[in-house]
Recover the amino acids of this structure.
C-alpha cells in the first residue's frame, strides 16, 4: 500500500489518474493506509485532487458522447474531493494552481466539445419537436372522415375516435413542452458546472417529452387509419398497428443507450447542487 513510483505517487494517486474506480474504492475502505495516502504530495506538489485533472491517462471513460464524459469527470472530481480533508482543497501545487484550476484548464477542450454537442442535439431535437407539433396541430382540425352539416364528426361514435382525440391532444402538449425545454437548453449558460446536473437533466426531460410526443402521434395516426378502414379483421388491425409504431420502435432503439446513460448518471446524484457549491467555492472549505 505504501509503495511509491518515481514521482512519489501512491497506488491511490495512480488509481485516480487512471480513473480506476474499483481500486479507488478498495483503498478507500482501508482506513489507516487511506489516512496516510490522502495527505502525501508527489514531486510536483500535486495532491490527490490535482490528479483528477490528468486527462492523458484517463482510461476509465465509459459513457458515450462528450457531454456525458464531462459529467463523468465532474462526478469523479467530487468523488475524490469527498475523501480528502476540506482544508486540502484550496492548496497549490508547484505551478501555483489549485486542483480546481488544473481541472478547468485540462478540460477546456472537452468542455468545448460538450457545448457543441449539446447545442447541436438541442437544435436537432427542437426541429423534430416543432415538426411533430405542426403535424398534430393540423390533425386536430382535420377530423377523420369529415363532419356532417352540423359540424359533428361522422365517426364520433367509433371506439377509435376517443383514442385519436386524446392522443392528438397529448402529442401536441408533449411536443410543445419538449420544444420549450430544448429552447431553454439553447439559452442556458454552458458553464463547466452546468454539465454536472442542470444540462443533463434538461436533456432528459426534453428527450422524454419528445419520445412521448412521437409515441402518441403514431397512436393518433393508427387510430385514424382504423377509423377510416373500419375492419373487423384482427390480422389487418395488427399489421396496421405494427406499421404505425414502427417509427417509434426505431427511434427508441437508436436513442436507448444515450437516454439510459443520461438517466443513470443524472439520477445517481444524491444531492443536486452539491458539486456547484463545492467545486466552485473551494476556498469556503478551506475555512471549515
Amino acid at each position: 500500500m505504501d509503495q511509491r513510483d518515481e514521482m512519489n505517487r501512491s497506488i491511490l494517486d495512480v488509481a485516480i489518474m487512471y480513473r480506476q474506480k474499483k481500486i479507488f474504492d478498495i483503498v478507500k475502505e482501508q482506513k489507516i493506509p487511506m489516512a496516510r495516502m490522502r495527505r502525501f504530495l508527489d514531486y510536483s506538489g500535486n495532491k490527490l485532487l490535482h490528479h483528477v485533472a490528468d486527462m492523458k491517462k484517463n482510461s476509465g471513460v465509459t459513457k458515450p458522447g462528450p457531454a456525458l464524459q464531462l459529467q463523468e469527470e465532474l462526478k469523479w472530481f467530487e468523488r475524490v474531493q469527498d475523501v480528502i480533508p476540506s482544508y486540502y482543497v484550496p492548496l497549490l501545487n508547484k505551478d501555483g494552481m489549485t486542483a480546481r484550476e488544473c481541472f478547468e484548464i485540462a478540460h477546456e477542450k472537452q468542455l468545448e466539445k460538450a457545448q457543441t454537442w449539446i447545442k447541436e442535439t438541442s437544435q436537432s431535437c427542437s426541429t423534430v419537436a416543432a415538426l411533430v407539433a405542426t403535424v398534430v396541430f393540423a390533425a386536430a382540425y382535420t377530423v377523420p372522415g369529415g363532419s356532417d352539416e352540423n359540424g359533428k364528426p361522422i365517426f364520433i361514435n367509433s371506439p377509435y375516435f376517443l383514442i385519436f382525440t386524446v392522443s392528438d391532444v397529448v402529442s401536441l402538449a408533449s411536443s410543445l413542452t419538449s420544444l420549450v425545454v430544448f429552447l431553454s437548453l439553447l439559452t442556458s449558460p454552458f458553464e463547466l458546472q452546468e454539465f454536472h446536473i442542470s444540462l443533463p437533466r434538461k436533456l432528459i426531460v426534453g428527450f422524454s417529452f419528445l419520445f412521448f410526443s412521437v409515441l402518441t402521434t403514431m397512436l393518433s395516426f393508427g387510430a385514424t387509419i382504423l377509423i377510416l378502414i373500419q375492419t373487423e379483421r384482427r390480422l389487418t388491425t395488427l399489421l396496421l398497428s405494427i406499421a404505425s409504431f414502427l417509427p417509434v420502435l426505431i427511434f427508441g432503439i437508436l436513442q436507448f443507450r444515450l437516454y439510459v446513460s443520461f438517466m443513470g448518471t443524472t439520477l445517481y446524484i444524491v444531492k443536486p447542487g452539491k458539486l456547484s457549491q463545492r467545486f466552485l467555492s473551494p476556498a469556503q472549505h478551506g475555512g471549515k
